[in-house]
């Protein structure tokens, strides 16, 4: 087919750097260069990473990987990095293709997927196409030779038959595969979703899930290797240069390795064509252990390659460059834990081999504790799938059950991620997530912001080599200028008065000695990039900084006054007038009574209210006088009453009544009658004042706060039915102090009427412990509940229940099948088994006194006869 002149100018505006690698050998690179040149482009081939000048001058970089030195520079300068497929697709379309759909960035995890859809609903089709495109893949409406995946519900569709007849290398998958990939934000194996016999449709829920070897974690499962790796002498591209050729590498003293190992490493580096230096300014690469110290920060700010010993050993093993940021444990670790991770106890389940070692080391690097076994004092369980005894036990004990993505995301962001995020609780039915462990990358922007920000106390640009305080190295000499004694008292971190973002600070008028800071916070002058020329200049600046601290209250008052209606000019008070209202309240009203303002009213409002209200409010909300829990209030029950409920709650708040949902916060409980709702029973344990909902009606009707004593809840019929006195129960609750069931361990069958969560909350509100019974008893830490530390809780009744273990059940046959197992396990731990109706718990919680379990106990004779 003949090509037009316009086609031959397709790459006319393109200067393309082609980077060779194992996946893109020199021969293939030469073929690509010939095609680009034929169509008007200007190609260049690089067997190693292009240098900075070549990178900046090119318009595109063609590479099958992001593991080359100039990748970070390309990202910063917005030069697209594309796979060779970009060239082929551009030729096929006769126009430059979108670089995003051909990016080798593994974060676009569907970047090598070309999908077409079979006989699936239009809504599912649109969702799949959108998800694939967003994650770097491509869509084809027809079945072409470039298609990699056909999404279908059956292998009998027209497109599926075409794939089978022509024996095309296309995977026919269910839509569930894309759904699980997008939920996890990671690409998983297609095998369980592949037609005509997908495993997810034929496997049972308890069938074992196969785990595959995670080859991507080879050499990347620890941040602190103890021995030299087995070296691969072959260069990456045959006769091409090795990975260390021409590099100048600094081995930081904080590595803490012995002299013999250090000599071996240096010998390998020199043999590979590298030089070893002790000066960070001369080095291209820095190998260190921790994310701190002058050497680390200087190298990072100068955009040098910074990695740890595991990364260096990985390069020695494979003789191919890999970015330290591509693996979480290839980068130096922090001496301090992730905020929120200290004190966490994390266990692992269903991870094997390198994936398990990797996660154990990652937990330690994050600052948490990794436990070999799962106990009730654990806080988290990280599991590769949801089918294991550990998972069942963790859910019974109320532990957080998540996949490894939660840990990796927390480490990469250096911030504790919420376990409630859907991707951390998603476990595809037939996939072991250990197969995709280790794919998370570090974000250079996060590292810069937290560990080596240019606004830090150390210099951000090049400077003469000086001795590192944390690292004893003779190669780094102190600066030539004389040491300054007065610097010894200046702290490294800045504690100056913060300046409100986006707001103008008040300038003290001390003969203009104090100047506006150039940055958003003050930095001690001895930490600035430029060294002061004289000692007197330094002293004056230190005096100015000290002066600023004197003005801190003035600045704070200024910021407060700026938020007042009218700002500082209209109605504001100067610092010199402090106390003018409180100490001499008659001064201003006499001078200008029209502009008199109530200080107390303004201080009672939030800053937001003061800044946004158009005029002074005539009426402000009163302080909260009671926290009211309401249950069984029929005016709020039912669909369509949500707006009325919200309006009523606002009205009550304006009267000083805060409606709460947490029983621990309530001081008053309102109900139409005595109820057995979760709210009512839980609230009783905290001994609130109990009133009728007539109190709520009358407060709303009269729009005023009435005396709750005038609206007691009286329900003699319910008291007779449930055999207790509400007044006495309130007195006992105050005496019990939520310790009625301390020492009691109550189990509950899984599908009990009313729900496990309701009974769990009741037991815990009264100091006990409630667990689901799934064929095991967890009595490992019972001893601490049996200690005689209840001297402050003199409750009615005996404490025999503390030597018993209870199971809340019903007389249904499906529940009765669990009873023999429960009795056996209780006997094994020398506890008396008591299988009881839920009325036993409810009666005790409502009366606030212990009751014998005999009259509530269930037996096999009652099965099918007892009503729940």
From TrEMBL:
GO biological process, one term: DNA double-strand break attachment to nuclear envelope
SUPFAM superfamilies: BRCT domain
Assigned GO CC terms: Cul8-RING ubiquitin ligase complex; nucleus
Residue ranges with Basic and acidic residues bias: 204-213, 479-488, 574-615
Segments of this protein annotated with the region Disordered: 195-236, 454-545, 569-625
All residue ranges annotated as the BRCT domain in the record: 6-104, 104-195, 341-418, 618-713
Xref: CDD domains: BRCT, BRCT_BRC1_like_rpt2, BRCT_BRC1_like_rpt3, BRCT_BRC1_like_rpt5
Superkingdom of origin organism: Eukaryota
Regions of compositional bias (Polar residues) in chain numbering: 505-518
PANTHER family attached to this UniProt entry: REGULATOR OF TY1 TRANSPOSITION PROTEIN 107
Protein's recorded name: BRCT domain-containing protein
């Amino acid at each position: 087919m003949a090509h037009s002149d316009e086609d031959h100018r397709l790459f006319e505006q393109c200067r393309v750097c082609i980077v060779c690698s194992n996946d893109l050998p020199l021969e293939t690179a030469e073929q690509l260069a010939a095609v680009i040149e034929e169509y008007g482009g200007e190609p260049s081939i690089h067997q190693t990473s292009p240098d900075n000048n070549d990178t900046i001058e090119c318009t595109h970089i063609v590479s099958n990987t992001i593991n080359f030195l100039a990748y970070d520079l390309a990202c910063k300068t917005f030069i697209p990095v594309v796979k060779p497929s970009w060239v082929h697709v551009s030729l096929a379309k006769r126009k430059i293709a979108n670089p995003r759909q051909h990016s080798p960035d593994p974060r676009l995890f569907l970047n090598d997927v070309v999908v077409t859809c079979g006989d699936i609903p239009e809504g599912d089709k649109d969702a799949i196409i959108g998800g694939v495109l967003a994650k770097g893949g491509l869509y084809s409406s027809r079945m072409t030779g470039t298609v990699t995946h056909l999404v279908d519900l059956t292998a009998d569709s027209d497109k599926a038959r075409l794939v089978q007849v022509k024996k095309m290398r296309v995977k026919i998958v269910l839509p569930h595969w894309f759904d699980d990939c997008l939920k996890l934000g990671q690409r998983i194996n297609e095998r369980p979703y592949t037609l005509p016999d997908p495993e997810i449709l034929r496997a049972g829920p308890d069938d074992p899930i196969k785990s595959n070897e995670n080859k991507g974690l080879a050499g990347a499962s620890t941040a602190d290797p103890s021995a030299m790796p087995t070296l691969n002498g072959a260069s990456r591209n045959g006769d091409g240069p090795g990975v260390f050729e021409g590099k100048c590498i600094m081995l930081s003293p904080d590595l803490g390795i012995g002299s013999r190992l250090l000599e071996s490493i240096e010998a390998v580096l020199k043999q590979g064509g590298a030089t070893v230096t002790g000066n960070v300014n001369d080095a291209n690469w820095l190998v260190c252990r921790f994310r701190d110290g002058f050497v680390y920060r200087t190298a990072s700010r100068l955009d040098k390659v910074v990695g740890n010993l595991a990364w260096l050993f990985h390069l020695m093993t494979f003789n191919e460059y890999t970015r330290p940021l591509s693996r979480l444990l290839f980068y130096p670790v922090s001496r301090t834990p992730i905020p929120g991770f200290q004190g966490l106890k994390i266990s692992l389940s269903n991870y094997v081999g390198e994936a398990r070692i990797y996660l154990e080391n990652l937990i330690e690097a994050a600052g948490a504790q990794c436990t070999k076994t799962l106990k009730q004092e654990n806080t988290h369980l990280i599991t590769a799938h949801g089918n294991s005894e550990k998972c069942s036990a963790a859910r019974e004990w109320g532990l957080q059950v998540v996949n490894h993505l939660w840990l990796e995301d927390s480490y990469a962001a250096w911030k504790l991620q919420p376990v409630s995020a859907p991707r951390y609780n998603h476990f595809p039915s037939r996939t072991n997530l250990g197969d995709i462990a280790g794919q998370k990358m570090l974000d250079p922007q996060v590292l810069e912001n937290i560990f080596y920000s240019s606004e830090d106390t150390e210099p951000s640009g090049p400077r003469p080599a000086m001795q590192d305080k944390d690292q004893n190295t003779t190669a780094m000499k102190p600066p030539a200028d004389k040491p300054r004694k007065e610097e010894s008292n200046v702290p490294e971190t800045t504690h100056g008065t913060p300046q409100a973002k986006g707001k103008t600070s008040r300038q003290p008028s001390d003969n203009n000695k104090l100047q506006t800071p150039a940055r958003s916070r003050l930095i001690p002058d001895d930490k600035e990039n430029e060294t002061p020329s004289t000692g007197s200049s330094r002293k004056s600046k230190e005096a100015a900084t000290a002066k600023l601290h004197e003005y801190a209250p003035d600045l704070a008052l200024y910021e407060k006054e700026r938020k007042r209606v009218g700002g500082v000019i209209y109605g504001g008070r100067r610092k010199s007038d402090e106390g003018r209202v409180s100490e001499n309240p008659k001064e201003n009203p006499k001078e200008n009574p029209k502009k008199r303002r109530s200080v107390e009213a303004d201080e009672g409002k939030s800053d937001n209210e003061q800044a946004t209200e158009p005029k002074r409010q005539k009426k402000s909300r009163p302080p909260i006088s009671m926290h009211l829990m309401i249950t069984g209030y029929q005016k709020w029950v039912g669909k369509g009453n949500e707006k009325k409920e919200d309006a009523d709650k606002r009205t009550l708040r304006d009267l000083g009544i805060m409606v709460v949902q947490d029983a621990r916060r309530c001081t008053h409980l309102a109900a139409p009658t005595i109820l057995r709702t979760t709210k009512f029973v839980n609230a009783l344990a905290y001994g609130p004042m109990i009133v009728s909902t007539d109190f709520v009606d009358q407060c709303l009707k009269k729009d005023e706060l009435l005396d709750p004593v005038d609206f007691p809840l009286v329900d003699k019929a319910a008291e007779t039915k449930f055999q207790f006195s509400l007044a006495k129960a309130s007195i006992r609750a105050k005496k019990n102090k939520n310790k009625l069931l301390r020492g009691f361990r109550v189990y509950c069958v899984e599908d009990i009427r009313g729900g496990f969560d309701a009974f769990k909350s009741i037991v815990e509100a009264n100091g006990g412990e409630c667990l689901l019974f799934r064929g095991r008893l967890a009595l490992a830490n019972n001893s601490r509940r049996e200690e005689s530390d209840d001297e402050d809780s003199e409750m009615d009744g005996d404490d025999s229940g503390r030597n018993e273990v209870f199971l809340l059940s019903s007389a249904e046959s499906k529940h009765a099948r669990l009873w023999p197992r429960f009795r056996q396990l209780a006997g094994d731990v020398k506890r008396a088994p008591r299988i009881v109706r839920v009325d036993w718990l409810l009666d005790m919680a409502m009366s606030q006194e212990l009751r014998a379990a005999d009259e509530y106990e269930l037996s096999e004779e009652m099965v099918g006869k007892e009503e729940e």
